[in-house]
From TrEMBL:
SUPFAM superfamilies reported in the protein's UniProt record: HMG-box
The keyword Phosphoprotein belongs to this UniProt entry's keyword annotation: no
Entry GO CC: nucleus
Gene3D superfamilies per the UniProt record, alphabetical: High mobility group box domain
Residue numbers spanned by region Disordered: 35-63
DNA-binding region listed in the record: 61-129
Keywords on record: DNA-binding, Nucleus
Domain of life the protein comes from: Eukaryota
Name of the featured protein: Hmo1 protein
Keyword DNA repair: no
Domain HMG box: residue ranges: 61-129
Listed Pfam families: HMG_box
InterPro entries per the UniProt record, alphabetical: HMG_box_dom, HMG_box_dom_sf, HMGB
Length: 136
């Protein structure tokens, strides 16, 4: 029985070596395949590539908030205070429900706020673009 243990130990070691070699071979083949797939994607028309976001000039005026977002921002605190157990998703659902049920006359107030802010934005954009042209 004592002679069987060293033999079994040696067989186990050899099996583990073969398994390690096979694992290394699979890893190399996987890396080769991934490399080929990556190179294949580079030759595409660019549809799979990440698009780089254009950095926004911090001096540019901010766009106006939509009428719904103005309404949402106005009610968010009140809805959250009414029921503190509501998640952000539930708060958004509640405000969305109120917006959909609101009459067009009531929505006109929020649309007017948007129009006023859009006018401000357009005016500031004209001034901003003029300032860029003067600096060139």
């Amino acid at each position: 029985m004592s002679t069987d243990i060293p033999t079994a130990k040696e067989e186990l070691i050899n099996a583990l070596k073969e398994l390690s070699k096979a694992s290394l071979d699979v890893s190399k083949k996987t890396n080769t395949l991934l490399s080929l797939l990556d190179n294949d994607n580079d030759n595409d028309d660019g549809s799979n590539k990440k698009k780089r976001r254009i950095k926004r000039d911090p001096n540019a005026p901010k766009k106006p908030l939509t009428s719904y977002i103005l309404f949402y921002n106005h009610l968010r605190g009140a809805v959250a205070a009414k029921d503190s157990s509501l998640s952000q998703t539930d708060i958004a659902k509640e405000i969305s429900k109120q917006w959909k049920e609101m009459s067009d006359d009531d929505k006109s107030y929020w649309r007017q706020l948007y129009e006023d802010d859009k006018l401000r934005y357009d005016t500031e954009m004209i001034q901003y673009r003029n300032s860029l042209n003067l600096n060139i």
